Amino acid sequence: MSDQTTTVADLKQLMQDFINERDWSQFHSPKNLAMSLAIEAAEVMEHFQWVDVAESRMRGHDPQHREAIAEELADVCCYLLSLASSLDLDLSSAVRRKMVKNAVKYPAERFRGQFEHRSDSQTTDP
């Protein structure tokens, strides 16, 4: 199984089967899953804390760190998939809709090669 051959639906089903086999649905409320997702995301951040940008890029290729980072990313993904399932959300559709909004908000011709942060409540002239 790889990213090229596995669908989001496959992964959601894998997670749901795991949860069902353990009768954990009773604990998997959206609140608990959202909190767990944030906790696991923080554990990903720990791998990059206190290193500079160049070192942070190298961590993913360093065998000493690579597998631990992959495990934390998998935890994030598992909670994300579980949260989407518990809310009956189609992640693929949500991502596609969000990317359409992002393309409007951050047109490539204006933002290529530069970073500009703006909140949804702010407007800037092109």
Describe the overall structure.
With 126 residues, the chain is mainly alpha-helical. It contains 6 helices and no strands.
Task: Identify the notable features of this structure and list them briefly.
single chain, 126 residues, mainly alpha, 6 helices, 0% strand, globular
Give the C-alpha Rg: 18 Å
Please give the largest β-sheet: none
User: Order of helices and strands, N to C?
Assistant: HHHHHH
Q: In percent, how helical is the residue content?
A: 55-70%
- How many strands appear in the DSSP assignment? 0
Class based on secondary structure composition and strand pairing:
mainly alpha
Mean pLDDT: 92
| Stretches with pLDDT under 50, minimum 5 residues | none
For the termini, the CA-CA separation is 44 Å
Put simply, the count of helices is: 6
Assess the beta-strand content as a share of residues: under 5%
Shape: globular
Ordered list of secondary-structure elements with their pairings:
Blueprint: H1 8-21, H2 30-46, H3 53-59, H4 63-86, H5 91-105, H6 108-111
Helix pairs in contact: 1-4, 2-4
